[in-house]
């Protein structure tokens, strides 16, 4: 299991050092600094073995988190734990920075004591931790420790089946917010052929519900719709087209997985507040909101002509926002002349790219930029690698076609019903890695 | 001993978090800053302050100093004094300090015991748990003694939070003092916790037990049976994500009794594949991959399961890059074991421009593994794209991948080659070099198909600066020397800086020039002589010198043989390169998700001590000691269930043998060796050139006695797995003079005898290079002895030996003319003999034998001649005629010449035969002073067609069961006992014709001691 956990600043100075196992000595702290942080060459693996000691590291801004072990640990678990640790810390004090780590070091030690015991991860749900961690993050509200009943409630919650929610939550207004956040990824060849495309989506929920509500979530999952279609009357063709094929999905630990496996129904008792209900991935019938058509022409050795057309491919009533097209330029670029029909374009020498920004663009429209790039003659034999043109945008629909069909809430003990809950649903599609080769 | 000095905490109080003022909120970092002299003194004062707030601040400062590595152990008593507080926050800080320094101050640490013991009784479960958790972290003997009682209570605490903490504490205590844990009976209590009502307690108990069990490989601590498994599976649905990982990892160690149990566990584990935590997913994959082995392949469920595995594996690739890396390393293993799972998912492994380099490299690896005819076009287009990226390592790997695609998918070879040519045109140095290295492999795979590109390659000769690329280019030039007009010039250009080249290039250059010489002998004598002298005289590298001598000698003694050796047909290279060796792969599959699967190494390679030393294997094949079946047959659990039931009926010996370890795969006997028939006539081909080459040599060059590192010589450079080259045999035997053509005086009589045999020995070694490690060393052949002395035969001396080469028995003779006149018209005849040996053709002495000249003759023998039992059995009477007279002599052949290649008996047949042959026919012999290990003996014997069928180890004594078959169909069974450290072997032979036993034994002795 995890033998120790260190946090370093960008210079390699230790900010936090917590050793759980006797086989990890103080020299391990230095070994990582010398061999990884101060390494001459860029480190090429997130797992490093130094003198039979394995180091797992992740970086958050310029802070290094390293877990150390001498055993054959579950590597996936260690990384998952490190991410979770980052989440917990962010939940307590916001951004993970040297400043914040130093300001909260006592808190971090207390957290580390609680969520890792002898190197075994224990409960890491922030909601539960906040009930019994004595140190308060600089952001959090003060919550005094309660009575004896409350103590035992804490322990049973932390260890129990529903470790993510405490009992006795009350709201005057029962309300929930559902966000379907999708990032659409594309890799397209210069000729416009889709090399790979997928949507990775998340359903994020904010729940302000009283008691221990039992929820059921439904979406236009093809498998479910087809099943229902069989049972009932054959629905009109238009509707079955509305369903989507989900390649795979994963759920927050509150979801009863065995029930999903057998009935494909998503039922759960939600944590209080913000959390991510599910993640999913689709690859079929994706709506690609934008099409990028590049045209690069090399005019002699010192000039490049680039023309890029973007076409928006969705209902004309909808508006895409925050559109940004990034056109890479060669390292030896000396000057760029730009003409664009819409938005603003700029050559950024430090980033070796032309950045073209458009605030808003409606569906079924088209826009174009042309650039003349002047190059300095070089002796470099290697040709310019032509990195792909990438794009960023935000659209108010789900490119996968996912639709929330229902979210039912039952709380048998308290007197509010599904109808009394105010529900909000929002769809946001963003670009993930949206690249077109040129 | 009881410590009264400290005041116990009275009334239980609820911990109160101090309401820190807003102003102090941003101030924790200040503790990091102070580093002044006298700091310790100041801290001491503050720690003893009456004000709570000040105390707490002081402890925080102490902890900050501790973190940055300052020694604050001097403050130990002062900090410990702060421990008795009702302030939970302060208490936690003090505990943190204690855990760090208790070990260095054991005597003072004892001061804390009382507080711990008191805290373990606290009404607040959080405080009880905190106390027992911290106590377990203090590795001081005196404290652990006090820990036992509180721990016992906490293990049975009413509060699950305390119990789950206590469960882990048992593992801590076990790490400090294993004996104590056993004596106190904590292990049983821990086992009971597996049935606890709280899922987290179960999970922690499982984690603790798994860890303890790892250091006791043979205990059945984790006594997994269907009942406990059921409990674990129930807890699996309810506990935290981490708990699920502990439970799944533990489940993976279980071996279900049958395929039905296996299926039911799989059914209950599959829902975990949808968990958001990747570790839960991968651990579930591990369980499924392992238990799948037991499912019959024709089962519907098996197919369903296969389909269910792909999506979660793909989803792992959208996780954070570090997790992607771990997932990819694991997918690499999974794809090797079960390629069908991901065969349609090629696209998800396409590299994204912004992927970290470690992700890119891993994806590339998997792309090659998944490449097939169906997707090759896409893959190639991608690879071409990658070859223009920035990262040098990645580009190189991409170029190499194109070559591997060509080798893997024949239909794509042409496209791959043209892609590679395009890349060469870019003139980017490292791309060109990498391309040349892979094109060499493509030439190997598809000989005589793409040679048209050689011209393009040659253009880039000057730009190659990496040894591997230079060696590859030289290999190409040598291999296709006849098609390259200026091959000699090209090679000569390399020769100038011969000594500055790396060994790899030197060896390749040597071979290439010898190839060139054999192809164009007339123009290149000077060149070959130059390289031979560079290699043998001016080099310090033993490998290079050895290879130089071998070539030199080959060329001087028998250019035809040299041609056959050096220009021998090369085995095809395999399609799948760098696959993980199957047994390791199986072990790694059992470690999916762990570090072992990331490193692709067994845990024993990087974990110290006893932990992780146990090798895990996949289930599937029944029969405990047997080696695991190959992947293709491994999952037929239903079939493998059957044999055990049959065992008892076959008697004891059968039972015994079923438990034997199989010896390593016996391959196919010695690789086909070209006949080393030494035809004098062939000399004429090269004739004078060679003479002049050798003529300069007045003294035989010094010969190295042995090579130091068995580095693979030239032939092996191209073969996928470098074979073991046996340097001792070669070096030891090469004692003779290489100067063949030069006339010798008195010692000439003895010379040929000592000389020719070693050469053939050397050849054997070269031929063996084609095989893999552990291949037989070639048939044993005794050294030549004088059969017919010159005195008895009017000046003709015949010395000779017998050898079995590529299934043909040969009588190898050296005829020496010691008379004053020329001898001609040689012929040979055998008398009838025990095994019907007869010449298979006439004696090939084509040229007249001049005075003082020797000639090597190899006479192939058949075994279909007339039979007459001789005494001794292996006696052979021979008549040789020449233009002078007829001469008679008799000689004895080693019976091992008669062992045929298909002498490997089936195990079952062996058993039956062994039992069938009456015990009277058994004879036992001792072989003294033999120092081989059983494995070495086995492989040595195998070279002479003595096949090891099974091996068993009883009390340090290895028993090899072997069979051999004579040309006349007589089977001989043997049991060879080898005891480590004892140079005396015992061999028991059983045969239906017991007369041969004595001869066989003699052969055994000769083969082993050779």
Describe the structure.
The complex is a heterodimer of chains A (438) and B (1010). Chain A has helices spanning 27-37, 75-93, 98-103, 105-115, 126-132, 148-159, 222-231, 237-240, 257-263; strands spanning 4-8, 14-19, 47-50, 53-60, 63-69, 116-117, 120-121, 175-188, 194-208, 214-219, 248-251, 266-268, 273-282, 290-299, 303-312, 319-328, 333-340, 344-348, 353-362, 366-375, 389-395, 404-410, 422-436. Chain A has 438 residues and is α+β, with helices and mostly antiparallel strands. In chain A, strands 11-13-9-8-23-21-16-19-18 form a 9-stranded mixed β-sheet, with no helix packed on it. With 1010 residues, chain B is α+β, with helices and mostly antiparallel strands. Mean pLDDT of chain B is 77; it is low at 1-26 and 621-776. In chain B, the strands form 3 sheets. In chain B, strands 1-2-3-6-5 form a 5-stranded antiparallel β-sheet, covered by helices on one side. Chain B is globular and about 125 Å long. Chains A and B meet through strand 2, strand 4, helix 2, helix 3 and helix 4 of A and helix 2, helix 4, helix 7, helix 9 and helix 12 of B.
Percent of residues in helices of chain B comes to 40-55%
Question: End-to-end distance of chain B, in Å?
Answer: 73 Å
**What's the total count of β strands of chain A?**
23
Question: How large is the share of residues in beta strands of chain B?
Answer: 5-15%
Number of strands of chain B: 13
Structure class of chain A = alpha+beta
Greatest interface and its residue counts? A-B, 108 and 122 residues
Largest sheet of chain B: 5 strands, antiparallel
Low-confidence stretches of chain A at least 5 residues in length (pLDDT < 50)? 137-145, 231-240
Largest sheet of chain A: 9 strands, mixed
Strand-residue proportion of chain A: 35-45%
> How are the strands of the biggest sheet of chain A laid out side by side?
11-13-9-8-23-21-16-19-18
For this structure, the quaternary state is heterodimer
Fraction of helical residues of chain A = 10-25%
């Amino acid at each position: 299991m995890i033998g120790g956990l260190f946090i370093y600043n960008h210079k390699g100075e230790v900010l936090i050092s917590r050793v759980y196992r006797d086989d990890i000595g103080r020299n391990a702290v230095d070994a990582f600094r010398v061999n990884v942080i101060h390494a001459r060459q860029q480190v090429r693996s997130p797992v490093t073995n130094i003198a039979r000691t394995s180091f797992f590291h992740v970086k958050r801004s310029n802070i290094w988190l390293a877990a150390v072990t001498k055993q054959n640990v579950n590597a996936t678990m260690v990384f998952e734990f490190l991410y979770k640790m980052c989440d917990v810390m962010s939940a307590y004090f916001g951004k993970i920075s040297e400043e914040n780590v130093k300001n909260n070091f006592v808190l971090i030690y207390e957290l580390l004591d609680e969520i890792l015991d002898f190197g075994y991860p224990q409960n890491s749900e922030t909601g539960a931790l906040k009930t019994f961690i004595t140190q308060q993050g600089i952001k959090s509200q003060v919550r005094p420790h309660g009575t004896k009943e409350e103590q035992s409630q804490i322990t049973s919650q932390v260890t129990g089946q529903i470790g993510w929610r405490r009992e006795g939550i009350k709201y005057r207004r029962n309300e929930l917010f559902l966000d379907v956040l999708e990032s659409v990824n594309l890799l397209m060849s210069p000729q416009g052929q889709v090399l790979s495309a997928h949507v990775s989506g998340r359903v994020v929920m904010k729940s302000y519900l009283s008691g221990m509500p039992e929820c059921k979530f439904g979406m236009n999952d093809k498998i479910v719709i087809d099943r229902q279609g069989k049972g009932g009357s054959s629905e009109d063709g238009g509707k079955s087209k509305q369903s989507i094929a989900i390649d795979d999905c994963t759920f927050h630990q509150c979801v009863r997985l065995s029930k999903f496996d057998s009935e494909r129904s998503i039922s759960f008792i939600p944590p209080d507040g913000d959390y991510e209900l599910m993640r999913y991935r689709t690859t079929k019938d994706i709506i690609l909101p934008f099409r990028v058509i590049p045209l690069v022409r090399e005019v002699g050795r010192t000039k490049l002509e680039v023309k890029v057309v973007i076409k928006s491919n969705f209902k004309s009533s909808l508006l895409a926002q925050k559109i940004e097209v990034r056109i890479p330029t060669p390292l030896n670029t000396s000057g760029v002349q730009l003409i664009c029909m819409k938005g603003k374009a700029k050559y950024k020498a430090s980033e070796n790219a032309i950045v073209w920004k458009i605030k808003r663009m409606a569906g079924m429209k088209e826009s174009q930029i042309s650039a003349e790039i002047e190059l300095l003659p070089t002796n470099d034999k290697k040709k310019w690698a032509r990195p792909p043109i990438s794009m960023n945008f935000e659209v108010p629909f789900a490119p996968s076609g996912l639709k929330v069909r229902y979210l039912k809430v039952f709380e048998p003990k308290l007197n509010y019903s599904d109808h009394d809950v105010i529900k909000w649903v929002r769809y946001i599609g963003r670009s993930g890695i949206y690249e077109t080769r040129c | 001993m009881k410590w009264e000095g400290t005041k116990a905490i009275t009334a239980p109080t609820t911990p109160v978090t101090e309401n820190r003022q807003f102003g102090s909120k941003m101030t924790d970092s200040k503790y990091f800053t102070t580093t002044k002299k006298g700091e310790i003194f100041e801290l001491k004062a503050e720690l003893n302050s009456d004000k709570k707030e000040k105390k707490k601040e002081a402890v925080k400062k102490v902890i900050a100093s501790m973190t940055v590595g300052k020694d604050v152990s001097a403050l130990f008593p002062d900090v410990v004094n702060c421990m008795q507080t009702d302030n939970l926050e302060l208490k936690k800080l003090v505990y943190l300090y204690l855990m760090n320094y208790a070990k260095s101050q054991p005597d003072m640490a004892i001061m804390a015991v009382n507080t711990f013991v008191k805290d373990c009784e606290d009404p607040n479960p959080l405080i009880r748990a905190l106390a027992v958790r911290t106590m377990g972290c203090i590795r001081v003997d005196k404290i652990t003694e006090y820990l036992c009682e509180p721990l016992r209570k906490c293990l049975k605490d009413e509060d699950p939070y305390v119990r789950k903490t206590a469960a882990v504490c048992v593992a801590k205590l076990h790490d400090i003092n294993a004996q104590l844990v056993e004596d106190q009976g904590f292990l049983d209590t821990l086992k009971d916790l597996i049935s606890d009502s709280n899922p987290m307690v179960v999970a922690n108990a499982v984690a603790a037990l798994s860890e303890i069990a790892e250091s006791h490989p043979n205990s059945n601590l984790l006594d997994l049976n269907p009942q406990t498994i059921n409990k674990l599976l129930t807890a699996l649905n309810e506990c935290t994500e981490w708990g699920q990982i502990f439970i799944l990892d533990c489940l993976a160690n279980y071996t279900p009794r049958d395929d039905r149990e296996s299926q039911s566990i799989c059914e209950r584990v599959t829902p975990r594949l949808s968990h958001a935590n990747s570790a839960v997913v991968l651990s579930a994959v591990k369980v499924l991959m392992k238990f799948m082995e037991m499912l019959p392949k024709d089962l519907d469920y098996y197919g369903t399961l296969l389909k269910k595995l792909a999506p979660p594996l793909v989803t792992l690739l959208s996780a954070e890059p570090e997790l992607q890396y771990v997932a990819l390393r694991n997918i690499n293993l999974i794809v090797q074991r079960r390629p069908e799972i991901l065969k349609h998912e090629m696209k998800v492994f396409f590299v994204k421009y912004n992927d970290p380099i470690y992700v890119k490299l891993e994806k590339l690896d998997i792309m090659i593994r998944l490449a097939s005819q169906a997707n090759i076009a896409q893959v190639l287009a991608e690879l071409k794209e990658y070859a223009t990226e920035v990262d040098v390592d990645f580009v190189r790997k991409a170029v190499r991948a194109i070559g591997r695609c060509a080798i893997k998918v024949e239909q794509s070879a042409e496209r791959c080659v043209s892609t590679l040519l395009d890349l060469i045109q870019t003139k980017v140095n490292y791309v060109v070099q990498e391309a040349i290295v892979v094109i060499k492999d493509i030439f190997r795979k598809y000989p005589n198909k793409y040679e048209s590109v050689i011209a393009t390659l040659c253009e880039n000769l000057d730009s190659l600066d990496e040894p591997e690329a230079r060696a590859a280019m030289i290999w190409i030039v040598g291999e296709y020397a006849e098609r390259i007009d200026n091959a000699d010039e090209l090679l000569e250009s390399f020769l100038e800086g011969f000594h500055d080249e790396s060994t790899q290039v030197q060896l390749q250059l040597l071979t290439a020039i010898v190839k060139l010489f054999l192809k164009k002998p007339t123009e290149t004598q000077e060149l070959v002589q130059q390289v031979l002298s560079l290699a043998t005289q001016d080099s310090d590298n033993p490998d290079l010198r050895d290879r130089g001598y071998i070539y030199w000698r080959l060329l001087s003694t028998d250019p035809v043989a040299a041609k056959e050796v050096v220009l021998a047909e090369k085995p095809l290279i395999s399609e799948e390169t760098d696959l993980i060796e199957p047994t390791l792969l199986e072990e790694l599959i059992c470690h999916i998700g762990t570090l072992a699967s990331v490193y692709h190494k067994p845990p024993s390679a990087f974990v110290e001590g006893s932990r992780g030393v146990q090798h895990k294997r996949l289930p599937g094949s029944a029969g405990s000691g047997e080696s695991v079946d190959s992947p293709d047959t491994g999952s037929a659990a239903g079939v493998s269930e059957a044999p055990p039931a049959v065992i008892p009926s076959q008697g004891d010996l059968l039972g015994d043998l079923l438990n034997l370890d199989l010896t390593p795969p016996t391959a196919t006997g010695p690789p086909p060796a070209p006949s080393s028939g030494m035809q004098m006539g062939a000399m004429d081909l090269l004739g004078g050139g060679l003479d002049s080459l050798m003529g300069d040599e007045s003294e035989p060059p010094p010969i190295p006695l042995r090579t130091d590192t068995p580095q693979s010589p030239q032939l092996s450079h191209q073969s996928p797995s470098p074979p073991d080259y046996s340097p001792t045999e070669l070096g030891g035997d090469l004692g003779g003079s290489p100067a063949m053509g030069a006339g010798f005086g008195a010692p000439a009589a003895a010379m040929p005898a000592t000389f020719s045999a070693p050469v053939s020995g050397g050849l054997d070694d070269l031929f063996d290079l084609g095989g893999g490690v552990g291949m037989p060393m070639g048939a044993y052949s005794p050294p030549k002895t004088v059969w017919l002395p010159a005195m008895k035969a009017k000046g003709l001396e015949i010395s000779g030996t017998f050898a079995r080469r590529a299934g043909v028995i040969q009588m190898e003779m050296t005829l020496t003319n010691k008379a004053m006149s020329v001898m001609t018209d040689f012929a040979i005849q055998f008398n009838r003999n025990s095994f019907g040996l007869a010449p298979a053709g006439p004696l090939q002495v084509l040229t007249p034998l001049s005075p003082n000249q020797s000639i090597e003759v190899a006479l192939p023998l058949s075994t279909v001649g007339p039979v007459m039992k001789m005494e001794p059995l292996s006696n052979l009477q021979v008549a040789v005629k020449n233009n002078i007279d007829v001469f008679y002599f008799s000689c004895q052949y080693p019976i091992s010449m008669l062992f045929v290649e298909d002498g490997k008996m089936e195990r079952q047949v062996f058993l039956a035969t062994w039992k069938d042959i009456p015990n009277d026919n058994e004879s036992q012999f001792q072989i003294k002073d033999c120092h081989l290990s059983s494995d070495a003996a086995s492989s040595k014997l195998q070279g002479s067609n003595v096949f090891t069928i099974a091996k068993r180890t009883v009390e340090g004594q290895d028993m090899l069961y072997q069979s051999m078959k004579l040309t006349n169909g007589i089977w001989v069974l043997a049991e060879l006992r080898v005891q480590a450290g004892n140079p005396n072997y015992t061999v028991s032979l059983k045969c239906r014709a017991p007369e041969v036993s004595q001869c066989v034994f003699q052969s055994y002795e000769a083969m082993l001691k050779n």
